[in-house]
Amino acid sequence: MLNQFEIFDSHFHIIDYQFPIVANNGYLPDEFTSRDYLERMKPYDLCGGAIVSGSFQMFDQSYLVDALKKLGPSFVGVTQLPATVSDDDIIQLDHAGVRAVRFNLKRGGSADVSHLSSMAQRVYELVGWHVELYVDSKDLPDLYGTLITLPSVSIDHLGLSQSGLGLLIKLAEKGIRVKATGFGRVDFDVNRALQDLYSANPASLMFGTDLPSTRAPIPYNDDDFLLVVDAIGENGVEDVFRRNACKFYREK
Scanning 56, 145, 151, 250, which has the fewest C-beta atoms within 10 Å of its C-beta? Predict the structure, then answer.
């Protein structure tokens, strides 16, 4: 069943101790290299994916450029950049396969949210990138007015909280993408949330494994994949498993 549907893994981390790792609130993740990732994904029909920078990698790009070389051109990168980054550095990262900049409002390690609007406009106009937010949906009311003005946005891990799920669904209706990832991080019925988000906008949801599930109370397991099939139905899962993410990350 795991290889029945082709997938683009929209959210996973590579942790390679050959490159800088910085403790975040005292936390250091276990190593999870490109080789480890490919070994874990052998049962799946994997057509590509997005390597996402974590709080513990802060503004280091060396690990990401290396991982993109090892995994190949079907993979893209999501990085964290300071607001002071130069246009030339952004263009070089784009050539390396990076396609988005992440704002980690949950754990830090990224640029401050005060730079969200300006950075989103800048990277979109310069290289066609989007912005990704790791944010608790309970905090979305303060960001709603900004988010709906940005050119291209995604939100990680189904927004994490039941309290902001209704607003997340409204954002999906307006074209903001939502990652169907981190099911072990949320406090609500994932099956129902997936159904509601898909009904609101079939182009919004993008599946990801969240491997290696750093700090997640319940790590990713293969049942999460099957849960998506159960929630969306076989006729719709191609959108969630592959089509939506491929369009988001590969088309500029």
Answer: 145
CA–CA gap between residue 171 and residue 159 (Å, rounded)? 11
Phi/psi of residue 251, nearest 5 degrees: -100, 130
- Kindly state the tokens that stand for 180: 């169907």
pLDDT tens digits for 229-251? 999 999 899 999 999 999 999 87
Distance CA 79, CA 105 (A): 14
Residue 118's φ and ψ, nearest 5 degrees, are -65, -40
| In 128-243, alpha helices (H) | 140-147, 165-173, 190-200, 222-232, 237-238
Six token digits for residue 18: 């050959």
Is 247 strand, coil or helix? helix
Q: If we measure between CA atoms, which residue out of 162, 151, 153, 154 comes closest to residue 180? A: 154
The answer, as to whether pTM is greater than 0.85, is yes
Domains for the chain: give ranges and CATH numbers.
Answer: 6-250 (3.20.20.140)
- For residues 98 and 126, the answer to whether their CB atoms sit within 8 Å is no
The rounded distance, in Å, linking the Cα atoms of 117 and 121 is 6
Give the burial class of 136: count Cβ atoms within 10 A of its Cβ; 0-12 exposed, 13-18 middle, 19 or more buried.
middle
Q: pLDDT digit string (tens) for 78-105? A: 999 999 999 999 999 999 999 999 998 8
Cβ–Cβ under 8 Å, residues 61 and 93: yes
| 32-34-38-39 Cα dihedral, nearest 10 degrees | -50
